[in-house]
Specification:
Length: about 290
């Protein structure tokens, strides 16, 4: 049997081929680990966006907010459902929002990317009480002022404190504040006045979704039954945390599957490379191996 010390010295002498084999295997591990970390990161980020005591109401048949439309008068009916929490003045805690997508130029890269713009009422900070302005100030209602999540800051042209960008052509908006939201997906959104977003994107008289604060998570079933029983309204109610969980499933599965496929392809390449290296090493050392065997 060949001593272990000989094998170790052999690796040191043939460091180039050894390093190539190690890097090939390390690359496979890195690709698979990166895919799994990315998929888990998506779940964690979207999981922080939802709360079990908040209900999301969408148009029946819509899986996402951007594909949903709820007429403005329906908001009062939803807020009057049982289980909705009320403030000290007896007002139901809930709001309607409009979610749209705008194409913006990236900073430091050629090309464009989609950015989510959420039209919100003035009460959004009271409803989402974990949101905090870290720089600047809140946007004034009824204006084209906006606040942006800290993860968007500086990544797109115009998305920096004090800068302007176009909501739509010839509809400029000015960034007056930067906010955080406990690491949730809302930190990658632009929050603008709901009427400004409606006017710019042709969504007058409509909400994408309605959110309500429940008295407790156990009140959801009663709220859901009342909201969904009117077939003419055609609404679906979901817990907010379950809603975001459903959004993350498809993306995380795709990322995990893609990462696994790429890792398998890389693994096959790494094994073939290691075999070629091994056979080449044997071929160049046949006399040495024969002497050792003798």
């Amino acid at each position: 049997m060949i001593p272990i010390a000989y094998n170790l010295r052999s690796m040191a002498v043939r460091r180039t081929t050894t390093l190539a084999s190690v890097l090939g295997i390390a690359l496979v591990v890195f690709v698979l680990a990166a895919a799994l970390m990315l998929a888990n990161g998506i779940k964690e980020t979207l999981g922080r966006s939802g709360s079990p005591d908040v209900a999301v109401v969408l148009r029946k048949g819509s899986d996402v907010e951007m594909g949903s439309s709820i007429e403005t008068p329906t908001l009062a009916l939803i807020l009057s459902a049982p289980g909705v929490k009320k403030d000290e003045h007896g007002n139901a805690l809930g709001l309607g929002e409009v979610l749209v997508v705008a194409t913006m130029d990236k900073v430091g890269f050629d090309g464009v990317s989609n950015v989510q713009i959420r039209g919100v009422p003035d009460s959004v900070m009271q409803f989402r009480n974990t949101a905090r302005i870290i720089e600047g100030r809140r946007a004034q209602p009824g204006t084209d002022e906006v606040i942006i999540g800290q993860r968007l800051r500086g990544r797109f042209k115009g998305l920096e404190l004090g800068q302007t960008f176009e909501l739509r052509k010839n509809r400029p908006a000015r960034v007056v504040g930067i906010f955080t939201h406990e690491g949730s997906s809302h930190e990658s959104e632009v929050w603008a006045d709901i009427d400004a977003v409606r006017a710019a994107f042709g969504r007058a008289g409509l909400f994408s979704a309605v959110r309500v604060q429940l008295e407790s998570p156990s009140k959801f079933e009663a709220f859901e039954a009342v909201v969904e029983q009117d077939k003419q309204l055609g609404l679906d109610a979901l817990r907010e945390d379950r809603y975001y969980e459903k959004q993350s499933v498809g993306t995380s599965l795709f990322v995990s599957a893609l990462g696994t496929v790429v890792a398998v392809i890389f693994a096959i390449g790494a094994m073939i490379g290691a075999m070629i290296t091994m056979y080449a090493s044997f071929a160049s050392r046949s006399r040495e191996i024969g002497t050792l065997r003798a």
